[in-house]
Amino acid sequence: MRLDPVLELQGKNADPTVLVLPDDRVLALGGSGLSIWDGSGAQLHWTRGVIAGDIEEDEEEFPGQAMPHGYANLVAAGDVALSWGGMSNVTVWPLDGGALHRVFHGDEVSDAALAADGRRAISVARDERWVWDTSTGEILHRLQHAADDHADDDDADGPAHRCTGRVAIHPDGRRAVTAGTGLCVWDLATGAHLRTLFDGRVGALWFRSDGRLFVAAGGSGGVIASFDLDDGRCRSMEALDGTGEDPVVGLIGEPASGVSRQGRAWRAAGVASPPADPDDVSLLFVERHGYEVRTPSGGAPYDVTRGRREIDQRRFGACLPLSTGRHVILESHWQAAPALLIADHRGRIVHELPLADRLALRAVGRSGRVIAGAGAALRVIQLVDEPT
What we know:
Layout lengths: L1 E9 L6 E4 L5 E5 L2 E5 L5 E6 L24 E5 L2 E5 L4 E6 L6 E4 L6 E4 L5 E6 L2 E6 L5 E4 L23 E4 L5 E5 L3 E5 L5 E6 L3 E6 L5 E5 L5 E5 L6 E6 L10 E4 L5 E4 L2 E4 L14 E5 L2 E8 L2 E9 L7 E6 L5 E6 L6 E6 L4 E6 L5 E5 L4 E6 L2 E8 L4
Antiparallel strand pairs: 1-34, 2-3, 3-4, 4-5, 6-7, 7-8, 8-9, 10-11, 11-12, 12-13, 14-15, 15-16, 16-17, 18-19, 19-20, 20-21, 22-25, 23-24, 23-32, 25-26, 26-27, 28-29, 29-30, 30-31, 32-33, 33-34
């Protein structure tokens, strides 16, 4: 297994949020707008992040700086992408280069998700949970929990906020889960609350392509649990190693769908096909002190291997799971010799690509495309799986 540099892309945004779509298109989003390239590096579209009523930034005085519309998070499905972060709106970007539009909440948007066809989205902000049409911005349902009617609006931990914070849509497109200090299931066609699965604090959640829901809950020293949405039963629960400092940064499996590093979190870049054997799928999650690969197998307890920072104590940086499902790629910043490292599930370095300058990992695609960058420049690197 090795990494081969392929091409370079010159974007318009410093330190953009990046996605690699399943067809190898690359999306790079920042304050000035969205760039889209095809797999050969040809730029397909450039959409400036301004609509009527926006206050435009002075590009000469503040080149590449973020405009106040929340571009820290990016997801894509069907023919659209969504962005949000730190503001009360979600921006809809048509991937054909068409005009963008926004949906405004009454408070800061904490998370959003797209259905697989890209036609519907769900976004959450404090005690608001909205299902809406991505083509028009029309709100289809305002999701309401029975406890919301009795919530104290001044109590941030009250019932109105118990299922707000994180969101994910089931692969069937018919149901969604919202999470915060509770884990609630919703019918997207009717907006009805179906059930509450879990009452603890949830930090990360992810749907496997066969519909099984995995959550990381309870903060430091918490658990990884899985649920069946059809009957609401908890199928597995395992304690995590407590570190005392927000252990779970991201939770993802089937990384063949593609992964983007956004802040300290991971986001899937596409919907993976169901595996032949759903239990033979790695779950990878990052902790501040390292990474873990947990492989559920036939209902048995997880086989756990850990790659801690000790594999490269002085230079371990960002970490992303590769499409093999058993390897991760790491930033190496040791001394004056920057590199990208591939490590296996046991923490062993299996390949090192020396770099002329320091690069930050941005995203990994389904076909093994790795995107790393410095400033507005992005480097495309191909993962090559050599026979042993």
